Amino acid sequence: MSDGFYVGMAAASARQQQLDIIADNLANVTTPGFKATRPRFETALRNPGEGKILSSTISGGLDMRPGAMMRTGNSLDIVPEEGTFLSVRAPSGQAMFTRNGKLSVDGDGQLLAGSHPLLDASGHTIIVPAGVTPAISPTGIVAHGSSEIGRLALYRVEGPMHRVGGSLLDVNPGVPANLVDAKVRIGELEGSNATALGSTVDMVATQRQFEHALQAIEIYKKLTDRGNEIGRVR
Hints:
Elements: H1 3-27, E1 40-47, E2 52-58, E3 69-71, E4 78-80, E5 85-89, E6 95-98, E7 103-105, E8 111-113, E9 116-117, E10 135-136, E11 141-144, E12 147-151, E13 154-157, E14 161-165, E15 168-171, E16 177-179, E17 184-186, E18 188-190, H2 196-231
Antiparallel strand pairs: 1-2, 3-18, 4-17, 5-6, 5-13, 6-15, 7-8, 8-9, 10-11, 11-12, 13-16, 14-15
Helix pairs in contact: 1-2
């Protein structure tokens, strides 16, 4: 196969992966606490002896910059301060992290952040008595009247993280997450740091680059076909 085919196919594959990442970012522009993935590219020698260099997309690190802060006035909307994270229980049962401070109470009385049960410092879920709307204090205390129900666990992560889904995050292997005494802002939410405009612009530009890679493959195909016709014994 012509080297041009390999180059074109590698470029098309890389752009397709980039489109998938951008589409995921675009789908989460309204998800509180969402952290966008920024794709990175790498090159590799397919055959060192021949010097053929191919490109590919790898899932880049998360963009951990904060999203826009939105004032909601809802007493169950919170923003962890000082770049900290709420601790929640993932569907797998493992403790993970989120910046999604949109709190609610489910039918079992569990206090949720997004759709995940919130955890206290001991790793237990916070259970709200039936019919009670809890109050959250700036220090993370969950209470009803003068009765303390629980306290939010806030963590500072000292290293890279990866996204498990939506605004649910986990630390990379070997990265420490330390329980800290931080505060939360009440009546606010941190929005996604992926914007509809930025993601749409990225989508259009990457789609064009993908089409250019397909065009290159088609051109090399025609050149190969023409070369085969010239070399054919008549």
